């Protein structure tokens, strides 16, 4: 893959993915489970959604001392993003979430469930795409403006995790900002209470 196929500000130490990568231990049954589209999986990545760098987003290094991720990178909207719309898929290493395979991912800040019933997760710590730079909203704004959502990838015929703009009414503290995500705004999700509880426990173990 040439450098032209890698987003600006992409870290040279992290391989860029234009599709998910599968760990060798992922079983045939787990792969088959990901290839089943359940009736409640109504959201989909369309077959014409381009792979590679996403034109909807920009990776930007944060230089705001008040930002929890100051000095690190965040993901920002390159244009106005409509409420409820797909931003981009979340790519990483698809792996089993059961021991001993899960042990390599216990400390990762980039590990998400993909299919709990199949015990499969996706971790973008060591390889991924732009979605790995989505930060948590806490300490940045009152509410998140985006969310992780399990969906169906029509291109590969498999379940996938992706980032979507929150629907109108869910993301806006005021009516003036109810129209999706503005160009130049940071894309922010909620990592969930479980994420922060685990991080607090890890911190307490080290002090």
In short:
This protein has 207 residues and is an alpha/beta fold.
What does this structure look like?
With 207 residues, this protein is of the alpha/beta class. The protein has one domain (20-166, 179-206): SET domain (Beta-clip-like), CATH 2.170.270. Helix content is 10%, strand content 25%. It contains 2 helices and 12 strands, in the order βαβββββββββββα. It has helices at residues 28-34, 193-206, and strands at residues 21-22, 44-45, 57-61, 73-77, 86-89, 93-96, 111-115, 120-123, 135-136, 146-153, 158-165, 188-189. The strands form 4 sheets. It has a 4-stranded mixed beta sheet. A 4-stranded mixed beta sheet has the order 2-10-11-5, with no helix packed on it. Strand 10 (146-153) and strand 11 (158-165) form a beta hairpin. The radius of gyration is 17 Å and the shape is globular. The model is unreliable at 195-207 (pLDDT under 50).
Features:
4-stranded mixed beta sheet; Beta-clip-like; alpha/beta
What percent of the residues sit in helical stretches (DSSP H or I)?
Answer: 10-25%
Work out the helix count.
2
Which overall shape is indicated by the principal axes computed on the Cα atoms?
globular
**Rounded to an integer, what's the Rg over CA atoms?**
17 Å
Relative strand content: 15-25%
> Domains counted in the coordinates: how many?
1
Assign the structural class, choosing from mainly alpha, mainly beta, alpha/beta, alpha+beta, or little secondary structure: alpha/beta
The fourth-level CATH homologous superfamily is SET domain
Strand order of the largest sheet: 1-6-8-7
CATH architectural name: Beta Complex
- How many strands, which pairing sense, and closed or not: the largest β-sheet? 4 strands, mixed
Protein name: SET domain-containing protein
InterPro entries: SET_dom, SET_dom_sf
Pfam family, one: SET
Organism: Xylaria grammica
């Amino acid at each position: 893959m040439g450098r032209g196929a890698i987003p600006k500000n992409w870290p040279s130490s992290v391989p860029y993915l234009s599709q998910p990568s599968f760990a060798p231990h992922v079983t045939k049954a787990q792969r088959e489970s990901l290839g089943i589209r359940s009736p409640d999986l109504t959201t989909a990545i369309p077959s014409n959604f381009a792979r590679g760098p996403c034109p909807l987003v920009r990776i930007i290094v944060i230089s705001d001392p008040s930002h929890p991720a100051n000095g690190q990178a965040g993901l920002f909207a390159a244009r106005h993003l409509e409420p409820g719309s797909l931003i981009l898929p979340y790519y990483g290493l698809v792996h089993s979430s059961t021991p001993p395979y899960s042990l390599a991912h216990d400390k990762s800040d980039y590990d998400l469930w993909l299919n709990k019933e199949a015990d499969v997760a996706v971790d973008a710590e060591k390889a991924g795409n732009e979605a790995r730079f989505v930060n948590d909203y806490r300490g940045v704004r009152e509410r998140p403006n985006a969310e992780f959502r399990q969906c169906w990838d029509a291109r590969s015929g498999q379940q996938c995790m992706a980032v979507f703009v929150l629907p109108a009414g869910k993301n806006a503290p005021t009516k003036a900002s109810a129209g999706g995500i503005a160009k130049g705004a940071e894309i922010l999700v909620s990592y969930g209470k479980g994420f922060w509880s685990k991080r607090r426990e890890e911190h307490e173990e080290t002090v």
